[in-house]
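Dear Dr. H.,

I hope your travels went smoothly. While you were away I took the liberty of generating a structure for the chain from your last submission, since the lab meeting agenda had it listed for discussion. I wanted you to have the full record in hand beforehand rather than looking at slides cold. The sequence, exactly as received, is reproduced here:
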Amino acid sequence: ARRQKNDELSEQMFANASEIFAEMIQNNGDVAEYQYYLALCLNQQGDIKRSSEILLDAHKLLDRIVRLNPTDHRFRFQLASNYSDLGKIQREEAQDDQASEFFERSLGILSQLVREEPDIARYQRKLAELRLELSRLSESSDDLRDAANYVESSLQIYGPLVLDDGENPFLLSSYAEALTHAGFVRKRLGDK
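The corresponding predicted structure, in token form, is as follows:
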């Protein structure tokens, strides 16, 4: 009963947020950040097609903004996040080649951001999450060596983050997910 109530509240929150972001876009024109959050809300509500369309529109805006402001890390991070989210949607839709393309684009941007700003944990965490996604994608296509390499690099990033902020439950959960996935990949590699 409690789970159902939480699910209903969550659905209502996503619906309310969707309405607000849609209104903000209508009143303020295309703003990539609003489109991005609207797409995330729609995705959570199960409207994958519309979510993908909006993310692609946001991507076009962000790409243009990044070309005009190539040194602005905020916009580059948002573009990398957008690519990652597009990859996740494509993966949900069983479009693994497209998912891989979006993930690789995100990986390039995030890797560069981490090299330029190695002390920003947010960039490192997003990179670790992305490497875990790439590991899952590689594993689903039975490319276990790549899956192992990606998840190991994810764990290498998570390790110092957990040492610095081990009380953060979201970080610990992500780290535990990566450890679990690494265990599954290693087990499958041992079975071959």
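Two observations you may find useful: The two ends are 44 Å apart (CA to CA). The first helix runs from residue 2 to 28.

With kind regards,
E. W.
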